[in-house]
Amino acid sequence: MASYKPTNIPVYPKLGEKVTEETLYWKNYKTPIQIKEFGAVSNIHFSPVTPYNFAVTAFTRIHLYGLLSQEPVKTFTRFKDTAYCGRFRSDGQLLVAGCEDSVVRLFDVSGKVALRMFKGHTKAVHVTDFTSDRYQILTGSDDYTCCLWDIPNSAQLNTYQEHTDYIRCGVTSQLNRDLFVTGSYDHSLKVFDARVDKSVMTINHGHPVESLLLYPSEGLLVSAGGRYVRVWDLLKGGQPLVSLKNHHKTVTCLALSSNGQRLLSGSLDRHVKVYNTTSYKVVHNFDYPAAILSLALAPEDESIVVGMTNSILSIKHRKPSEEAKETAGHQRRRPSYRVYAHRKSYVPKQDDYLVSKPVRQHLAKYDKQLKKFNVSKALDTALETWIRGRKPEITVAVIRELDRRGTLKNALAGRDEQELSRLLSFLIANLVDARFAPVLITAAEMILDIYQSIIGQSPVVDKQLLHLQSLLERELDYQKDLLEVLGMLDTMFASSLPKIELPCSGISTSNGLPQGQSTDVIFPYNKMQSRVFE
Amino acid sequence: MFLLCASGESVKVFSTATEECLHALQGHTDLITGVLLRPSNHLQAYSCSLDGTVRLWDFTDGILIRTYSIGYPIYGIYASAKHEGVIFIITPMHTDTNSELFQLVAVHLPQCGEQLVEAKELSAVLSNISSNPAASAFGREGQYIVSAKPLQLEVYFFKKHKSYSFFLKKDNQKGGKNTFTCITCHPTEDCIASGHEDGKIRLWRNFNHRKEYTYSTLHWHHSAVSSLRFTPEGTNLLSGGVESVLVQWRYNQESQRDFLPRLGGAITHISVSPDGALFCTSHSDNKITIIQSCVKVSAVIQGLVKGDRIRTDLMIEPRSKALVLNGKPGHLQFYSLQRDKLLYNLDIVQQEYIHESGLEQFEVVMAAFDASGSWLATVEERKQKAPELELNLKLWAFDDQKQSFVLNTTISAPHEGRITALCFPHVSDGQTTMLVSTSRDGHFKAWQLAAPAHTEDEGPSWSCDFLGAYHSLVPECCCFSADSSLLAVGFQEVVTVWTPASWELLTTLSQPPGAVRDLCFGRLSCSKYLLGATTSRLLCCWNLLTCSLEWVTSMDVSLLLADPLSENMAAFCFEAGSTDLFVFKPGEPRPLFSHKALCSGRVTHAVFVPREVMLESCDEASQWLNCSHLYFLTQSMDLLTFITKAEEDKLTASSKQLVVSDDVAMTPFHLLLGKHRDQLENPQAESRLSVEPIRQPSSSAGINELLQMPAHVLPSASFLCSMFVQSLLISVNKPSEQNKEKEEEMESEKEEEDSDGEMESRISRPEHMPSGESGCAAPALTKEEVRELRRLKKLDHSWMKGLLD
């Protein structure tokens, strides 16, 4: 006949952050590996070629890390002062870095000593980069100038003195060897063409520019400065496309995911935000323990590397995908599967009489006990620690089911001190939860009815009862406050809405029937208000 | 294998293999109270009825063999193989019908071949017994008969002509009730099993001494045991009660029990086939379950489920055109009106039903389908007291693969108060995305089908879109206009009209005093009209174009509904204890149809059922039935409908009965929700199962037709009067004449008594009789007599037709 219907566990809508495909993608990283550096990590750059080592610039050193190693594979220590902006050339062979002592050093990745030293700036060099033809170097310095250097003969090719403040960021075009963009603390971005002597485009960011990013197509430029991330359309002459204000402190670094669909920004407010590059909405958010100075993504988003002011480098690696896991598992299992394969492959012959096994309904433990009308045991099962802690909705559903069956009192009665304190602690934890309150208030009333005679016998229970009482008092205060707020909102909504004059049903005059209701003030609750109530 | 089941005034014969009803044994004129297999012939069965007759049937062919007239209402029937030619019946002790005292009477059935026999040899066996047929039983091989009174067990031994009584104390210490509820006896040993009010079963032994009797107690049931039965070999005892669990006890090893739980409604009767292979339980929700002896359900015979009461409206499922209403507790039943068959039950509450009296259960109180039948909204509630009210609003989507409704969204506590109305807009092109519910908490809410906000949600779900209120009045009803561009919500005395597109209040209409009870928009060409029924006995019609009252009339409308396929509206008005029906178009002042005193009491549930084939009737009075049937449920829970003349003719022609029913015909499942008790009989074992009566369209007096015909179409009164009197004479005389003739023939011939009975039954329906068979069955009839008979028939026919026309 009809089978036993298990207790209905209601599914409550998850509060807070909604789970999207995006969050699933960005959550699919292992717990971060944290490496202590010697000072604040100011720059991270991935080598564009395999094995995708990355250079971490921190204090007076540049460490090269392998993609999966936790120890540096190479260290460049020949800096007299704080190093800045260690960057790879596009073939991964050379590394350039600026320094507080105004000297730009060029290293061979396999060597230790600087191949070239470019001296010409008078102040600290915060920006270095290779141009796309690989033979020139762009530098930007705190002396307000930016220079182009020739690598083979280490000569200064050109100097641009257009910025009026420190130059702290710059990128070279990967498509055109002559184009580069610099950002400065004078709030401006300048696009330079090496073939002419001055900037070809100036864009005002509005805040000291901290970081720059060119899209792979190089039609769009992203700049970060102050709390803003701004996107500019270079092809339309630097027209602002969008301005994002999602951080509450200065944005310090920018990165683009490997497919160019997502933009990441890191900020001193310790968050990394992920934006969708079509809608420019924040789709995900990472939290970090300290203010973020630098950020880089490995190719294929295999890892996220973040450098922080507290000199911690945090590396998150992507979890291996489940398909890979599955195929691996398959291979391992195959031999043992073959041993037993013949049983499963048995095909019944035509005249065989098949005895079908009755399908047993799987029931949870509390359901089995409810089916047998063992109400106290069912409640005990539902109050087991892991259910109580992890899934209070199951416990509440069982209590509700017992209440529906009219046997809740029987189930609650006859408990010893330990069980009673377990019940009370569950009540204390969940009584004020709006989803559970109607059920648990009934249960709490019953418990008080049953056990009021033993108050004063057990210090544990007494303490919990007092706790419960104070909890309820606090909750009452909250509710009162909320009602007050609601009242205020009601007044505000009512006064802000225009009074609607309705066409009066003019029945009365035509047929002599008594006048209908007068149409004075109507409060049609608008959608917003209905949300408030929801 | 056959299963006999008493159902109203007929005994239905079911096949246990196919669950089909093979035929109905008709003939009794009142409720049948018992069906019993004839001990000496396994192919014949007795049935007894409150009309005071016992009839003997050949149930394989569905033929009435003999009728024994007793003269008193019969409440139960027993027989035993040991007592040949004697049946035992329960009759009132006094002839007046209100008598509370009953006696067990032995009736010696006369052994003559006549069709109608008056049994006069009555002798009382036990007096002052219970009228419940389950409270008496024959003991081992008919040696004794046992009867239970509230607290007394009386055993009558036929050999000694002596009866012993055993008493129980009124209450035992735990407060359980010792009252006997049912009795059965072991077939081969001296053992009586008795069921009690407190759920105990007592096995009595050694009761042929007054003092030294013993009993042992079995206790599993938590409330009254309603039926007990031993298997034919006596190895097992079956018991059932309100828990809906069939318990099989091993005789002498009572600690071993088998259970068959969750059979449905409360078990009312159990019966066992004589070979012990099949058990059969009947349930309070109009169901028979056939169970194999290995305690496995093999078949279910289910009629329209009888609930305690109908809380939902009558509805039509737009896809299958099935009637939908409350069924089993927490379920909606889908009942096909065309096939007169239960299609399925939809579990709404989805909780284990606890069979316990006095427990507050979740009830489905409201349901609504959208126009295309792809969405179903249901409201269930528990504990109607305001602070503890538990409400759930569920939305079900139709699943094309499963061909059933699948739960889409559950909204717990959608409102703070009870929900008063629920409606979908009438969107013709299919995709409904809105639902409006009104509640006693003073708000109405619009629920909207929203696409999933996130990709991992499976599909669209419903959420609240708008919350509306008006001066903190309580909304009682709501209605969408035909094109769904307007929503009318009745807030007590005020009707507010909203536009669902922007949720603006467009206008208010009111007709004080009196709260608006029912609202209905006109359809098609009348869609500009809004009709409202108020508690101050007014029916108002507003014109929405001018926002003014079009007309108002004084009537106490209890239900107002619109035909979805035409402009017609039906109003059921409660007037002086009975209900009148008016069918009208909102734009026309004159009603299309009116029917005074339709039934007593208020009509609160009715529905227009779209026809499969439109009728082309041009008769003015029945034109409104061209598009739809109108079904309605009376206060006594009878489901009635209207049929047109043409249909009625068809019906009568098909059933070959000259039924002149009045306009309100009884549908095949008329009285399905009535409170008649029925009996069921397994072919070989006697049993009584209470099932819903299913009554065929029964004949009613032609007088009604005569009286209800409009005066201007009737011929002159003098002509009618003579015709009427004449008709009475014919209809009364005809059978008696025939009988007289028959009897004369029988006396002269004295042959083939059994086939006589058969013939008699056929004579009553001569249209069926094949000509050859009639010749051999009644050879004594002279040609002239046969001709005379036929002439009479023809006369009768034509006369009736004349009356009809």
TrEMBL record, chain A:
PROSITE patterns: WD_REPEATS_1, WD_REPEATS_2, WD_REPEATS_REGION
Database matches in Pfam families: UTP15_C, WD40
Entries under SUPFAM superfamilies matching the protein: WD40 repeat-like
Family annotation (Gene3D superfamilies): YVTN repeat-like/Quinoprotein amine dehydrogenase (2.130.10.10)
GO BP annotations, alphabetical order: positive regulation of angiogenesis; positive regulation of transcription by RNA polymerase I; rRNA processing
WD repeats: 118-159, 244-285
Name the UniProt record assigns to this protein: U3 small nucleolar RNA-associated protein 15 homolog
Gene Ontology terms: cellular component: nucleolus
Ranges where the U3 small nucleolar RNA-associated protein 15 C-terminal domain occurs: 346-491
UniProtKB/TrEMBL annotation, chain B:
Keyword flag Nucleus: yes
KW Transcription (keyword) present: yes
GO MF entries: RNA binding
WD repeat placement: 25-67, 173-204, 218-259
Composition skew (Basic and acidic residues), residue ranges: 759-770
Source organism of this protein record: Oryzias sinensis (Chinese medaka)
WD repeat-containing protein 75 second beta-propeller domain residues: 314-637
One Gene Ontology biological process: rRNA processing
Origin superkingdom: Eukaryota
Name of the protein described by the UniProt record: WD repeat domain 75
Entry GO terms, CC: small-subunit processome
Compartment list: Nucleus, Nucleolus
Biased composition (Acidic residues): 744-758
Region annotated Disordered, chain positions: 735-782
